């Protein structure tokens, strides 16, 4: 093998690892890909994998040691993760040459948006309406969540086009949503504003997946990666809480007027309909392939059913554990079917339906309000609950596969 070929192979797997980091793969899976792809190409490599940086060190040659480092300064869109998953599978098994792999990776990174911006805004409004039916099914909240979802969708699209503003979008969105809700409640003479009514338009900013991945990586002794994700997740929650608190102070509201009590004025069937509405919104906003719709419907209903049953049997905190466990096992099982989407693509939409992400916003906001003594610990426990559910699902899946292999 020539030195040029070695360098090309190392550059390809380094860039592929960086793309996995930009697609929010845990570093454990990135390292597995680097190891298996290196073995498939016959290269004894050493490597370093972090969420936003990958370095691959090749074998020593007569002219020195080949070292390639790669990183992406932006996250991949949800629709880009589907062709990326196929490329990862081909690289792990050595079914693609490094030159073709780099060409496919370049094509993935250059993919245009599937739908125009107006469709993305429409999708986010529909997604917000679906979550409103799941969390706070009242006619007024459904209307408000839909309209505010359109507004936040515009903010998200603007953030994509102007990267310098992207980091301000969560706080600005939280402030705008809260200010409109509080001002409307004051004008209508309502005595409180439900925090659950604020969450559907802000759902895209809830870092449930980031915090869950952080706990998984910390458990796997990936301290640097896990700590950085954990800090990032809590900073995201803090931005949302900051926007809400600024709105309450400017409009003369206080923490006691922010209620987390659940209200259902439509009917017990509304959350189940809301899950379907949410799935349609996800298809338009995140723009995955149309073939993803039946899998999406299956996975979100499975996650919601696991959460619902867990809440009935064990209570609200354990519902996150049950939802995470069921979601993970279902996603891994589905991903093994031919033509099924990758497991990681199915897990993200399921996260936005689980309790801990939503409770994170409620808890941190109440931390500065009337119920601060118990809200923050409850929030941490609820978030760890879904992370442990994810881990339990992974362990259960691995044990099942191990028993199948060990069976005569």
Plain-language structure description:
Residues 367-375 have low confidence and may be disordered. The longest helix has 35 residues, at 372-406. The protein has helices spanning 3-22, 27-40, 81-92, 98-109, 117-135, 139-161, 163-166, 169-188, 195-202, 208-219, 223-250, 270-285, 293-314, 316-335, 343-351, 355-367, 372-406, and strands at 46-50, 53-61, 64-70, 193-194, 258-259. The protein has 408 residues and is mainly alpha-helical. Strand 1 (46-50) and strand 2 form a beta hairpin. The chain has 2 domains: 3-109, no CATH class; 117-400, no CATH class.
Binned strand content: 5-15%
Shape: globular
The major β-sheet equals:
3 strands, antiparallel
Distance between the ends = 41 Å
Low-confidence parts, pLDDT < 50 over ≥5 residues? 367-375
Q: Count of helical segments?
A: 17
Count of strand segments: 5
Q: Summarize the helix and strand pattern as letters.
A: HHEEEHHHHHHEHHHEHHHHHH
Strand arrangement, largest sheet? Answer: 1-2-3
Instruction: Give the proportion of residues in helices.
Output: over 70%
Would you tell me the overall average pLDDT? 81
- The gyration radius over C-alpha positions equals 22 Å
Count of individual domains: 2
Which structural class should the secondary elements be placed in? Answer: mainly alpha
């Amino acid at each position: 093998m020539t030195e040029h070929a070695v360098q090309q192979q190392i550059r390809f797997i380094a860039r592929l690892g960086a793309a996995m980091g930009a697609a929010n793969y845990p570093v454990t899976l990135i390292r597995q890909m680097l190891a298996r792809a290196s073995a498939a190409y016959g290269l004894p490599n050493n490597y370093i994998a972090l969420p936003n940086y990958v370095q691959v060190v090749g074998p020593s040659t007569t002219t020195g040691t080949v070292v390639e480092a790669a990183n992406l300064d932006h996250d991949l869109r949800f629709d880009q993760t589907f062709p990326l998953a196929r490329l990862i599978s081909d690289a792990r098994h050595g079914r693609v040459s490094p030159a073709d792999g780099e060409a496919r990776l370049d094509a993935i990174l250059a993919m245009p948006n599937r739908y125009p911006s107006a469709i993305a805004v429409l999708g986010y409004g529909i997604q917000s309406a679906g979550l409103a039916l799941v969390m706070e099914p009242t006619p007024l909240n459904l209307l408000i969540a839909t309209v505010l979802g359109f507004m936040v969708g515009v903010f998200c699209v603007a953030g994509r086009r102007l990267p310098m503003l992207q980091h301000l979008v969560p706080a600005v969105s939280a402030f705008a949503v809260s200010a409109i809700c509080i001002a409307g409640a004051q004008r209508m003479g309502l005595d409180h504003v439900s925090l659950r009514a604020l969450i559907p338009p802000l759902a895209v900013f809830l870092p449930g997946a980031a915090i869950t991945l952080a706990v998984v990586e910390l458990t796997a002794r990936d301290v640097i990666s896990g700590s950085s994700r954990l800090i990032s997740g809590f900073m995201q929650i803090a931005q949302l809480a900051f926007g809400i608190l600024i709105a309450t102070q400017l409009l003369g509201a206080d923490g006691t007027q922010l209620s987390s009590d659940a209200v259902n004025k439509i009917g017990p069937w509304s959350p189940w309909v809301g899950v379907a509405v949410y799935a349609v919104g996800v298809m338009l906003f995140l723009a995955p392939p149309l073939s993803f719709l039946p899998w999406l419907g299956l996975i979100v209903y499975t996650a919601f059913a696991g959460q619902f049953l867990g809440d009935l049997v064990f209570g609200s905190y354990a519902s996150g554990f049950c939802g995470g466990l069921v979601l993970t096992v279902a996603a891994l099982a589905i991903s093994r079917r031919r033509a099924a989407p990758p497991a990681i693509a199915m897990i993200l939409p399921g996260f936005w339906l689980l309790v801990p992400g939503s409770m994170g916003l409620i808890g941190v906001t109440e931390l500065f309000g009337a119920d601060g003594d118990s809200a923050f610990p409850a929030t941490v426990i609820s978030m760890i609950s879904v992370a442990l559910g994810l881990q339990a699902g992974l362990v259960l899946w691995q044990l099942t596969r191990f028993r199948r292999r060990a069976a005569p």
